[in-house]
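Hi W.,

Here's what went into the run:
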Amino acid sequence: MNWINRYLLCTAMSVRMMAFAQDPLNEKSLEQAIENRESEPDYIDIEERLEYLVSHPVNLNNATPLEIANIPGLNTLLADALIQHRKAYGELTSVYELQVIEGFDPELIRDIHKYICVREILKFNLSSFSEANYHHEWIFSISRRLEKSLGYRLPGTDKNAFNGSPYKHSSRYRGNIGKFNLGFSTEKDAGEHWRDQFLTFYVQFLWTGRIKQFILGDFQADFGQGLCFGSGMGTGKSSAVMNIMKRPDMIKPGKSLNENALMRGFAIKGNLARNIHMTAFYSFNPVDGNIEQDSTGSGYTGFPTGGKYRNSGEGEKRNAIKRTVLGTNMHIDFGFLQIGCTAIRTLYGMPSLKQTKPYRLFDAREKDIRNYGVNYKLFYRNFLFFGESAINTGYSSLSHIHGLLASLDKKFDLSMLFRHYSPSYTAVSANAFGEASRNCNETGFYMGCVLTLGRSFKLSAYADVFHFKWLKYQVNSPSYGQDMFMELQYNKRKTYSWYIRYSHGIKEANEKGIHISKRLESLQKKQLRGHMECIVSPDLILKNRFEYVWHKGTLSSTSSGLLMYQDIQFRFRKKVRLILRYAVFDVETYDSRIYAYENDMTYSFSVPLFQDKGSRTYLLVKYKMNKNLHICFRFARTSYENADITGSGVDRIDSNRITDTGIQFIWKL
Amino acid sequence: MPFVKTTAFGISLMNMYVKDIHNVTFCTVLPAGNTAFGIKLLSSGNGVLSNTTIGAGCAHRLHQKFSFGMEIDYHVYRINAYGSSSFINAGFACYSEVSGKLACSFHIYNPLRTGFRKTGEKAVSVAKLGCRYKINSTVSIHTELNKPVHTSTGFSTGVRYDLNRQFYFGAGFSALQGHFTAGFGICKSGLDFACASVFGRAPGSCFNISISYELDK
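Here's what came out:
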């Protein structure tokens, strides 16, 4: 099975907490996705994407090959087999008819049934408030760190002193009444004053006519491969080695609690003709920015992404820059071929300050940035080609991404991707595949494959080679890097599984230390992980992990990191679920840091970073009080052996322990 | 070589990053029963530094699934400022069709570590272990472990996909050099034409064209 899709499926299972046993693939993918990113991903976005797929099931009887290949769990080979079956025998009468098509087994059909249908979903009727289209959910969470950091202890007159309490709380409401959806969220971070909490809201209408979707309020959008415009987590290198292609173009309500990820205004999606689809949006919302002044006047120098406004210094950056974004996307769908174009215009309230640092030479300085892109997807036999080319106003900024997904055999999937992002390419919300967090100054080639060996073994691997043709932050010359990843997985009838993973990455960066001329050194990171999971009974699951990281520079010293943990997951009378972990770690430096997924409260994810020497314990209790009310409690403590102080700056804690607690209430109707 | 049933010729041309540097290889295989003889000519370099190699080899099929071969090469290196130097070295290889899907091979080159006559500088010795796994009639995976004496072990892997009897595609990755290769080939009436491009660390890209022809096919 295609690993992109398996990744999404597994994530869906986890996010919705429908199954007691969490598939380790989900955790693996998340962990590695975070390791490979320069910033923390937006977890709520993952959930939104899956919700979108569930709420827009694909009708197998009129879906194009491209739409079928996009269904989580299916690959190009299966899509082709389904199309051939439809041509030979006509429309499917039931999703269970898929069993007669080669490659579709009952397990696969069970996995994909949420995303497919064989007839049009009945149009909503306001007079019939059936259970299916009437849904309300309210979530309230409160958490705090028991140890107070320096920011709380500073006198109120200090500009670094935190303005608010150490409690973090968030609430979230979502209501669906057929084609009408409404939602709002609030979030106050620890240390923030309640007046500074983040608010988001949306109203969404869904129709089946010429206008399909209208969103008022906060929203997100994805077009093409995200080179021109994309939001959320996107695609990237992970253990889901086939996850390199973006999902279909879409707009979605903004439920994210990431302050800088949302557009605020309206978005509309509709059909100009049967196979011509169009989306347009207008957004006006200020964004956080660092404002500075020089002889030419004031301007911004960057966009902080922390989203925390705990003291006056952090608060100054909040909503500092006015931003207006207009965009439109149109695509024509011929079934086997989809061609689209995107145009985005971004207007800032002030220009960017001229940068004196060489690595920022190509940064856009205009207040008005325009991006134009063309994207395509082509389905041919068992091959799926996709790509996007984009340009922004200014000098040579033409950038490309082109990829291929191929199911060469039932047992063998192959993915390839080439990208070239010009150093001068600037897009406000680009989110295409890449090594760096910004889609600029990068040329690379990626190849991944999945080989199924027998019924129980699966081998996945990828390799990626990339150049940065211009300088980067802390890299004072053009540089080079490569990543390799290999994983062998074993599954025995869902009762016992293990995987062994080895990865090796090389990157170049400035030599550390004080030197008159900065030289580049090649940094190598090797990682070995063994993970085992045993489902002793439906109510008891045990997990073990061993991970070793080795980091070395050609000019700097070697460091290593080690992590081991034991998980026990226990369920009592289907009402109480208990998850307990004990982990020990010994990580010498930040370069050899280790990440490990942790179960957290519903709609929350946690993938903490392990550094220094110590142990970590967490306990999560989930209690289903009744059909409507769920309660969740979490306690996590990290103890460091050789440190009396943890954290730095205003986050410094004068203790060798960090203790986090939280409680959550979920009310569903 | 012992699995080649008719006389065959091959030529490979490679552009080595800079247009002045060339790499041309010509080889021929002459089968005789379970044994095959081969000759190769290799020329690479430019006006400043060049290498010419003449080699001869033979391979014998010891068993339906196992064969053994050896080669002897004569190398001449020429550097304009210093003149030329030459040496002779040898290589041994074995190849086994373990099953219809899996084939393995082992090759050791210059095991005696011979060197240049003038300077006594030793030529590189390399050991290679390779295998090919056929997933089905159209898809095969090839891997190779490569251990030169003085450097770390390299790993290369690639996949070949036969679109039909005439066309095939290939792609591979070499970990030690950190480069990708992607290309395609056309087979028609004994003629096999293939070309590939390299994407990797070295500046510019490298382009490789090879042509082979089997008689009586």
